[in-house]
């Protein structure tokens, strides 16, 4: 009887309480059910705790502020085929977050751009 955000907060809290310096924490788009501002706030709180506990953590996120949160945070990005940005290379490299999610390219691939949708539903 909880919402997604509360589930995320409870789950992360339980994991951090059980974690030791031998733990590896994996987080995937945590706090995605809230606003960007709140996700940044919560993500920073989690990262502060992770750093204080000296945990190894993989935190998958599109939030650039978290990728540059602290010098101890290592930013990694997935690469795409430059000529075809919808094609993933499945290569992950150490690089600063670039803000590119390729959402437009994916929308174009599936004919879901704003303009195409507008033409389809226009009277």
Major beta sheet, strand line-up: 1-2
Shape: globular
Beta-strand percentage? 15-25%
Major sheet summary line: 2 strands, parallel
Total individual domains: 2
Number of strands: 4
Low-confidence stretches are none
Mean pLDDT over the residues: 91
Question: What is the element string, with H for helices and E for strands?
Answer: HEHEHEEHH
* Radius of gyration over C-alpha positions, nearest whole angstrom: 18 Å
Question: Treating each run of at least 4 consecutive H or I residues as one helix, how many helices?
Answer: 5
Structural class: alpha+beta
Question: How many angstroms does the end-to-end distance come to?
Answer: 42 Å
Helix-residue proportion: 40-55%
Structural commentary:
The chain has 123 residues and is α+β, with helices and mostly antiparallel strands. It has 2 domains: 1-72, no CATH class; 75-123, no CATH class. 42% of the residues lie in helices and 22% in strands. The chain contains 5 helices and 4 strands; from the N terminus they run αβαβαββαα. Strands 1-2 form a two-stranded parallel sheet. It is globular, with a radius of gyration of 18 Å. The mean pLDDT is 91.
Fold topology:
Layout: H1 4-18, E1 24-28, H2 36-53, E2 56-60, H3 64-67, E3 76-81, E4 84-94, H4 103-109, H5 114-121
Parallel strand pairs: 1-2
Antiparallel strand pairs: 3-4
Keywords:
globular; alpha+beta; 2 domains; 123 residues
Summarize the structure.
This protein is α+β, with helices and mostly antiparallel strands. 42% of the residues lie in helices and 22% in strands.
């Amino acid at each position: 009887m909880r919402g997604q955000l509360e589930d995320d907060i409870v789950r992360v809290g339980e994991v951090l309480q059980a974690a030791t310096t031998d733990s590896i924490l994996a987080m995937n788009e945590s706090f995605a059910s809230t606003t960007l501002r709140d996700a940044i706030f919560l993500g920073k709180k989690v990262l502060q705790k992770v750093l204080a506990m000296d945990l190894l953590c993989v935190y998958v996120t599109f939030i650039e502020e978290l990728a540059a949160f602290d010098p101890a945070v290592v930013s990694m990005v997935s690469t795409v085929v430059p000529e075809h940005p919808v094609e993933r290379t499945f290569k992950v490299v150490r690089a600063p977050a670039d803000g590119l999610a390729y959402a437009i390219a994916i929308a174009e691939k599936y004919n879901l751009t704003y303009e195409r949708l507008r033409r389809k539903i226009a009277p």
